[in-house]
Amino acid sequence: MSVTGSQADRATEAALRITGGGHANSVERDSENGATWEVEVTRTDGSTVDVRLDQDYRLVVIEGDSEKG
Predict the structure, then answer these.
(1) What letter does residue 45 receive in the DSSP assignment?
(2) In what helix (H) or strand (E) does residue 19 lie, and over which residues does it extend?
(3) 32-49: per-residue pLDDT in tens?
(4) How many CB atoms lie within 10 A of CB 53?
C-alpha cells in the first residue's frame, strides 16, 4: 500500500538522489532486507528499480523491480 506525507516525501527525495534522478512511482513501508521504506523508481534510462531505505533514509539495497515486465 502506497504511503504519503512528509516521511514518504523524504524517502522519495533520498531514493531519487541515490538513483541520480528519475521518477518515483510509489512509496511503501517495507521490512524486506532490514529496510523501512521501499521506493519504486523509474530511472532516466527507463529501467525500474526498488530502492530500499532504512529508517534514516539511508540506502539498504537497490534491486531490479521483478513486478515489471
Answers:
(1) T
(2) helix 6-19
(3) 888 999 999 999 999 999
(4) 23
Which residues, in sequence order, are bridge partners of residue 37? 29, 53
pTM for this model (two decimals): 0.88
Which residues are CB-neighbours of 40 under 8 A, at least 6 positions away?
A: 24, 25, 26, 27, 28, 48, 49, 50, 51, 65
Dist CA 40 CA 12 (whole Å)? 9
Produce one character per residue of 12-48: b if its CB has 16 or more CB atoms within 10 Å, e if not: bebbbebbeebebeebeebeeeebbbbbbbbeeeeeb
Q: Which residues contact 51 (CB under 8 A, 6 or more apart)?
A: 14, 15, 18, 19, 38, 39, 40, 41, 59, 62
